[in-house]
Amino acid sequence: QLQLVESGGGSVQPGGSLRLSCTASSRALSDYVVGWFREVPGNRRERLSCISSRGRNRYYDESLEGRFTVSRDNTKYIVYLQLTDLKPEDTGEYFCAAAHKTLGCSAQFSDYGYEFWGRGTQVTISS
Question: Rounded CA gap, 93 and 46, in Å?
């Protein structure tokens, strides 16, 4: 069982930045692909990014236009999502999730196959 806790959310103005963290409960994180997803009430869950177990493969949803960057430090059991040039439409609850590395991380990633989920961290973008 892998437990995940997101942190780093908050309220910022448009154009601002945040760094979200996804902290795992154990070193087992190094055997897992991690994905980031966003939820807005009334909308479908959106995919944002995934990163392979050792960090060699990273993919992003095209809609992000290069504004987000995913990284990981397996020695600290943490995966990061750096958010830059934030826009009001980036407002939402951000979740990290983990799937065994056999799932892989590819350009076609979705929330399918992710078995462990954090509780989310809220990001609000407003002026």
Answer: 10
Alpha carbons 34 and 81: distance in angstroms, whole number: 11
* pLDDT, mean of residues 3-9: 98
Spatial CA neighbour of 114 closest among 36, 40, 6, 20: 36
Q: Can you say whether the dihedral through the CA atoms of 47, 84, 64, 68 is positive or negative?
A: negative
Q: What is the mean pLDDT of residues 106-127?
A: 96
Identify the band that residue 41 occupies on the pLDDT scale cut at 50, 70 and 90.
confident
- How high is the pLDDT of residue 1? 86
- Please count the residues of the chain: 127
Please name which of 106, 72, 79 lies closest in space to residue 95, comparing C-alpha atoms: 79
Dihedral, 74, 69, 16, 9 alpha carbons, nearest 10: -40
